[in-house]
Write a structure and sequence with these properties.
Elements lengths: L12 H16 L20 H15 L8 H9 L1 H4 E2 L2 E2 L1 H10 L14 H5 L4 H16 L13 E2 L5 E3 L6 E3 L3 H21 L8
Helix pairs in contact: 1-2, 1-7, 5-8
Length: 205
């Protein structure tokens, strides 16, 4: 499902996209007009690992969310096992399928036949960050507001990705970006497994 099609009414995908583009441009000392949703972060905009960390930090502050600390490939290998995703240093067909489902905004088909984990990270584009921000904002909008201790309505913190109860002081952090995106990945994988079961091609987990 497209991330923008399932947003609470208080979230404006177009506004989020523009803000993400602004932050990417600021981090890389570019004009926002140079940063397109389809722009590849590394190959086209020249982003390095430290730049990506800087962008994640700025996005956290702007939207009061907790960006994932692991990348898509780390989450996939942790859950499914690297042996199912890469053989002799090459991404398997199953790995490519999961990547395409988990990152629909990227051009997974462009991966070279002997692609490795570093090649996967080069697929990331600006729209990848937009999708992640929208998903985490959606998770925040759906987060229970009732204090688990006293039942009062909690309020969002002004500075941290958490909710605070004004009555008893209880602090409840938002689910981490890693938790939210891992659950999404499991959902995507379950859908792929259901489809593959009809052809008896489900890899071992």
């Amino acid at each position: 499902m497209d991330a923008a099609s399932n947003q609470p009414s208080s979230i404006d995908p177009a506004e989020v996209e523009y803000k993400v583009r602004q932050i990417v441009a600021q981090s890389l000392d570019l004009e926002v007009e140079q940063v397109k949703p389809s722009s590849l972060l590394a190959d086209e905009l020249g982003a390095q690992s430290l730049d990506l960390l800087d962008m994640a930090f700025m996005l956290e502050r702007e939207f009061k969310i907790q960006f994932p600390r692991t990348d898509i490939w780390e989450r996939m290998t942790d859950y499914f096992g690297e042996e199912n995703l890469m053989v002799d240093g090459v991404v398997t067909d199953y790995g490519r399928e999961l990547l395409g489902r988990a990152m629909p905004e990227t051009d997974v088909a462009s991966l070279r036949p002997n692609a490795n984990a570093q090649d996967v990270m080069r697929l990331l584009n600006v729209e990848t960050f937009v999708r992640i921000v929208l998903r985490l904002l959606e998770a925040k909008a759906q987060f229970p507001r009732e204090c688990p201790d006293c039942g009062a309505q909690m309020q969002e913190s002004d500075v941290m990705p958490e909710f605070v109860c004004p009555q008893c002081g209880k602090i409840v952090p938002l689910p981490s970006g890693d938790d939210v995106l891992m659950q999404d990945l499991v959902t995507v994988a379950d859908a792929a497994k259901t489809e593959r079961s009809d052809t008896h091609e489900v890899p071992a987990s």
